[in-house]
Amino acid sequence: MPIRLHKSVVYHCPPMTTFTESASTALQLLTSLDPTLVSIVARSLSVSACACLLACSVGLALGAWLGVAQFAGRSVVLTLLNTSLAIPSVVVGLLVYLMLSRSGPLGYLGWLFSFKAMVFAQAVLVLPIVTALTRQTVQDAEQLYGEQLRSLGAGTVLRAALLAWDERHALLVVLIAAFGRAISEVGAVMIVGGNIDGFTRVMTTAIALETSKGDLPLALGLGLMLLAVVLALNLLVALLRQWRVRSESAGLALNRGLVL
After folding, report:
1. Can you tell me the distance from the alpha carbon of 40 to that of 30, in angstroms, rounded to the nearest whole number?
2. What pTM does this model have?
3. Terminal-to-terminal C-alpha distance of the chain
4. What is the pLDDT of residue 1?
5. CA of 171: how far to CAs of 49, 60, 168, in Å?
6. Does residue 45 form part of some domain?
């Protein structure tokens, strides 16, 4: 920043090194495995993993069934499902908060501002994503192989299970995308978890809090960890795609060899 000490002399102060110092301190926290940082990262991974496990156990089955089932009002159900993909996370957090509050229908559980509340909120947030993507994947497979399966006597549930298994590589990508959405969420978990230090503080809420407090090294260190998790998920998706291409190529080559 230029400072004018004399009418004809202008001195320039050295640039601020806040970012450089914060980045250096953040790297030190990462390399030294700072206990606070490690506990926050571990809690964040645990919450997202549990939420994805719950959401995927329901969403995969429901999405596979919707992909093959034909019933009255199906278009309305699919419209509502696709609309739920755009619901903001803070709205989901508000709805879950009202459900878990003392006056809510699930208030007797006593989950508000706890680990379970955050898992529940993230599961509700991720469930539409898993259901919608699974439905689209299975429906595309139904258009290709559904008639053949029906001719063999396969019912709705059996066709849904067989097609979901046949598209298991694509559904693995759906699971990874769901986990990435869950771990990067901030609004819902902050509302229902309360961002309590040592209990419900996860990476995204900690980054928001530490930035507002001015503790940039810890916030930057958590941000680097979050970026590393997202990068690892993207690499895993790329590897799964390559694995699927190689598996399909090997299967086609084997079929050609048998025909010849």
Report:
1. 12
2. 0.82
3. 77
4. 45
5. 16, 8, 5
6. yes
- Residue 255, pLDDT > 80, answer no
Looking at the structure of the chain, the number of domains it has is 1
Evaluate whether residue 94 is within a structural domain. Answer: yes
User: Would you say residue 236 has pLDDT above 70?
Assistant: yes
User: Nearest CA to 134 among 218, 210, 211, 62?
Assistant: 62
Structural domain of residue 205, as residue ranges?
38-247
Q: Angle at CA 85, nearest 5°, toward 80 and 87?
A: 95
Per residue, the 3-state secondary structure of 60-126, as one string, reads: HHHHHHHHHCCCCCHHHHHHHHHHHCCCCHHHHHHHHHHHHCCCCCCHHHCCCCCHHHHHHHHHHHH
Tokens standing for residue 72: 């009255």
The CATH number assigned to the domain holding 96 equals 1.10.3720.10
Judge whether residue 91 has pLDDT over 70.
yes
Contacts of 201 (CB under 8 A, 6+ apart): 40, 43, 193, 195, 209
**C-alpha span between 70 and 260 (Å, rounded):** 40
